[in-house]
Design brief:
This protein has about 725 residues and is α/β, with parallel strands linked by helices. About 35% of the residues lie in helices and about 25% in strands. Helix 3 packs antiparallel against helix 4 and helix 23 packs across helix 25. Its cofactor is Zn(2+).
Length: about 725
């Protein structure tokens, strides 16, 4: 098998062929799927190995002291041979991985061959294809948790143990100094504990990431912004506890901790920074300085780690293994999100190059994962189901209605999008009656009623769904409620217009389709408005038919969200792309006149910018670049469609052109007013379908395919491979 090793004397890094470890009693043999590079601890070892002998000595004074003692005991020649022999040997790297149990040793009965486990330990969870892991250093991975996320288990346990040492309580305010991998996890764990967090790091990208993941404020240690945030959150008293997750030789972290901590607060050292405590500052506040020892109780105890002797839970609640299992559970339940921390995934065969890029600074990363060959092979064609649309006995009969009677509409939700992009197009439309608006707060319903002329305003959804006079329901709420509200409205026999997304996961999508099958009601439209934009429709007409496969590029300059936006609540509302990406996939599929058959997704370091490649049955491809780091002065949406010697160009729904050969076939005039992205035409088509009983504007099968493709983006990011869209028969 292959394993990453380093010669500490020469600094050489290599992937070495070594024998497969035996499966001893009291443990399991695990085939690695993903292992995590600790960009702090491991890079420190890699850097030390490249130093001169004098540099090595300066960096490890503890080892120098051992050498001096050995000289006194054994003499210079014997000590020299011993030290050189140890230095000139290969040593392993790695301590956090996820893999599949390949063999079970004697005395192990809680896992079996084929189980997915997360493993810990710098002697047992190495960057190697196979590892033997004793029972107290692995934990079973919860169902549904992606292997690459479970690979964070050990590092997560380090952060979790550090948080436990701080003894946080609801309402506390904490300071996290150092926003590398451990610091980012500490921020999230504190947030999950009901603690408000201020972060400190000289890197503005890491500060922004921590704020996205829940920190109240972050800033450079030299700025006044951090002190101002602490003063505001604590009423000037100082934070309750400080977590030192920084490294390096500066004494600034411990000095900052003393300055910003309250009287009798706690300072917890998790990382490995300089600790020359300023005596007066710590004495005057009587600060409680604590150390967090790695993954938790049991660490460095051979009876616990190697012999499998557990500590009684009544005496030691949180051991190494229990911390590991707890962290995995938090990630599985969405309380901690590790996906934004994944900066890079490298094939295991590229390990040496990856370490070198990290060391040289070419690869800026919070977390880097190795993906192992067999796992990569298994992940080549993961699939997301595109469920079939089953109608019980055709569509539900459309209620008889007079051609003169207005279409009576109810709105569930009256937020910014509803009041700015939908209701203005409906309020003055002939043949439409705004019947009822439903919101969770009475005042927002009253405001919408006053502004747009709804006949009634209420907070009672059941009354609306039970009103036989209402023809259609608009679902314009937060993303997490779309599928359930759509399902209920379909079962009530209403035509439904739901803003994107239709669903946030496969179960929600299946629930909507189950309602269609149960009720026979397939009168559903999702707010994919761009296919209705007049300018894009004219451009598609001018482009004409095509005979060969096409290439489509869609650049979405989405920009950054304001801090505090509910769009950032990924644990409940899904990712930003899950909420908006359906627009662009639907537009691509409409232009290419087909539904995608596979999806490949990849992010840039920090999970800022997303690239999605869609493949279609005829070989056409569409690339959606969803970016948040672009200039706000650049247009939001630009699109190019290339096929058969022709190019269609759309510039942000303001101008469009079609090129044929060496000349422009057609160029639109610049629109005199605001961009028309199709909302008005979309609503007109929906109202017409409800009034006449004719087909809905977009076939339900297409809505389902687009939703499944959007869901496949997240599955592709988790698996690191193209995702097949498997259509049910």
């Amino acid at each position: 098998m292959k394993q990453v090793v380093q010669n500490y004397k020469s600094g050489e890094l290599t992937v070495l062929d070594v024998p497969v470890p035996g499966c001893k009693p009291g443990g399991v043999l695990v085939r690695s799927a993903y292992s995590l590079i600790s960009t702090g601890t491991e890079l420190m070892k890699v850097s030390e190995a490249g130093m001169s002998m004098l540099g090595k000595a300066r960096s490890r004074p503890d080892q120098v002291a051992k050498v001096v003692q050995s000289v006194a005991t054994n003499g210079v020649p014997a000590t020299y041979r011993k030290v050189m022999g140890k230095l000139d040997s290969y040593t392993p790297l790695g301590y956090s991985l996820c893999g599949v149990v390949e063999q079970v040793g004697a005395g192990i009965d809680e896992v079996k061959v084929g189980d997915l486990v997360a493993c810990a330990g710098n002697e047992h969870a190495l960057h190697a294809e196979l590892n033997w892991v004793p029972k107290n250093l692995y934990a079973r991975v919860p169902d549904g948790l992606a292997p690459r996320h479970a690979a964070f288990g050990t590092v997560g346990s380090i952060a979790l143990q550090g948080v436990r040492r701080g003894e946080p309580q609801l309402g506390d305010v904490a300071l996290v100094i150092g926003l590398g991998l451990i610091g980012q996890l500490v921020v999230q764990l504190l947030g999950a504990s009901g603690v408000r967090v201020v972060g400190v790091d000289p890197d503005p990208v890491r500060c922004e990431l921590a704020e996205r993941l829940g920190a109240a404020a972050c800033g450079d240690p030299a700025s006044t912004a951090v002190e101002a945030a602490v003063a505001e959150l604590t009423g000037g008293h100082g934070v309750d506890h400080v977590y030192l997750a920084a490294g390096g030789g500066s004494n600034q972290p411990v000095e900052l901790a003393a300055r910003l901590c309250r009287d009798r607060g706690r300072v917890v050292d998790i990382g490995k920074c300089r600790l020359d405590l300023p005596w007066n500052a710590y004495y005057e506040k009587e600060l409680d300085v604590r150390f967090s020892r790695s993954y938790g109780p049991g660490r460095y105890d051979p009876e616990y780690e190697l012999e499998g002797r557990d500590y009684p839970i009544g005496y030691v609640r949180w051991t190494e293994r229990r911390n590991l299992a707890c962290f995995l559970d938090l990630v599985a339940r969405g309380s901690v999100d590790v996906e934004p921390l994944v900066s890079h995934i490298a094939d295991f065969d590229d390990a040496v190059e990856t370490y070198q890029r990290l060391k040289d600074g070419d690869l800026k990363a919070v977390a880097v994962l190795f993906r192992y060959p067999e796992h990569a092979g298994e992940a080549e064609a993961p699939a997301v189901a595109v469920p079939a649309v089953n109608r019980r006995s055709g569509t539900a009969p459309t209620p008889a209605r007079s051609a003169e009677a207005p279409v009576r509409l109810a709105f569930v939700g009256a937020g910014n999008y509803a009041t700015s992009m939908l209701l203005p197009h409906l309020a003055q439309r002939d043949g439409v009656a705004l019947s009822t608006v439903v919101t969770t707060t009475a005042l927002s319903a009253a405001n919408a009623q006053r502004k747009f002329g709804f006949a009634e305003a209420t907070t009672d959804l059941d009354a609306v769904l039970g009103d036989p006079l209402i023809d259609a329901v608009f679902v314009v709420t937060r993303h997490s409620s779309h599928a359930e509200l759509t399902r209920r409205a379909l079962l009530a026999g209403k035509a439904v217009f739901v803003e994107k997304p239709l669903a946030l996961d496969e179960d929600e999508l299946a629930g909507v389709l189950a309602a269609v099958e149960e009720s026979g009601n397939d009168r559903l439209q999702v707010g994919f408005n761009r296919r209705f934009a007049p300018l894009l429709n004219e451009a598609r007409k001018r482009f004409g038919a095509r005979s060969g496969p096409a290439s489509l590029r869609y650049l979405v300059n989405a920009g950054r969200l304001e801090h505090g936006s509910w769009y950032l609540q990924q644990g409940t509302e899904g990712s930003r792309f899950a909420g908006e990406g359906g627009h662009f996939i639907d537009t691509a599929s409409w232009l290419l006149k087909a539904d995608p058959v596979s999806v490949y997704a990849i992010t840039t370091p920090g999970n800022e910018d997303l690239q999605v490649v869609l493949r279609y049955p005829d070989g056409s491809t569409a690339t959606v670049s969803y970016v948040t780091t672009g200039s706000p002065g650049f247009p939001k949406e630009t699109l190019d469609l290339v096929a058969d010697g022709k190019v269609l160009r759309l510039d942000d729904f303001v101008r469009a052109a079609v090129y044929d050969g060496r000349r422009k076939r057609w160029v639109s005039s610049r629109l005199p007013k605001a961009r028309d992205k199709g909302q008005s035409a979309e609503l007109a088509a929906f109202v017409k379908a409800v009034r006449t009983g004719g087909p809905m504007p977009v076939p339900l099968e297409s809505l389902v395919a687009t939703t499944a493709a959007t869901l496949a983006v997240q599955a592709g990011l988790a698996g690191g491979a193209p995702v097949t869209l498997a259509r049910a028969r």
